[in-house]
Amino acid sequence: MEMSIYAKRGFLGNHYHNLTNGDTILRLSGETRGAQIAEYIGAKLNPKERGDLCIFVKGFRMELAKDRDYVDFSDEKFEDLAPKLIAKPKINVIAHSLYAYEFLKPKLPNKVVLIPQQHINWENEERIKNNPLVGGYIGRPSNVSVEIQNEIKKTLKKIGIEFIVSFEWTTRQDAIDFYKSIDVLVLGGYGKLPSDLWQITPTKMINAASFGIPSIAFMRVGYKEWEGYYTQFKTMDDLIVEVKRLEDKKYYQEYSDRIKEQAKQYHISTIAEIYRALLLNAQDPLAWRLR
Questions:
Q1: How many CA atoms lie within 13 A of 152 on its CB side?
Q2: Radius of gyration, alpha carbons of the chain
Q3: pTM value?
Q4: What CA–CA distances, in Å, run from 83 to 28, 60, 67, 98, 144?
Q5: Tens digits of residue pLDDT in 105-156
Q6: What domains sit in the chain, N to C, each tagged with a CATH number?
Q7: Contact 93/113 with Cβ under 8 angstroms?
Q8: How far apart (Å, rounded) are the C-alpha atoms in residues 16 and 203?
Q9: Is 88 left (phi over 0), alpha (psi -120 to 50) or beta?
């Protein structure tokens, strides 16, 4: 049997030229959950003639969908894609996080399965820890994000900690190089509407963990599957306390070893087996999370 994956390809662009000087990669879900997976498992990407089983990332080319195919909901807006799925209840749905799975399952008549996103460190690269620590954030620019990163930078500067931000990354290697340059990932709070919260995933923290980098993050329900593997903070004072704890070498190393081990289950080789199981219809991919 052959699998086909349909996904809009990523491209370089910048919606916030007033905030940065360069471009970043846009339509990232199409690259990570579409192109990368298709290449890794040998599936066809956006073929003219569909295979035996198809995955449609964010509903792209969903008009080709047949019963038993899968639509990867990813970070698509619920109100845009849900009506199309409800109208075709024999099409299956892929959720990209545990919280998304729990959010979508009771709202759709379709079968919903969980396939988390693979981390970026496919080569299992190592890093050299900085002394003193260096904090960082990687993502897309927005007015809210820039404001948050500036506040974090100002706060950490008070205790002599450098904080660097990467908005203008374009490739997986760019992201790898960034993670290898920091010692703690800091994710601040965002003004997301409640209806959008299910879209948030712990992928950045899992990326960091694959290098042994601890994360300190403002708690979000979308981080559910990574609870216990990151440190929460609510205020800038909390952030200072937690960063200072990481300055203890023994504490840092134990934390680093624990999250690095947990991140192994998100390696692309492991995630690829879940996609292959869809083709073979051998198991419910949710078993990945519950075993």
A1: 29
A2: 19
A3: 0.93
A4: 24, 15, 16, 22, 31
A5: 999 999 999 999 999 999 999 999 999 999 999 998 888 889 999 999 999 9
A6: 3-118+267-290 (3.40.50), 134-265 (3.40.50.2000)
A7: yes
A8: 23
A9: beta
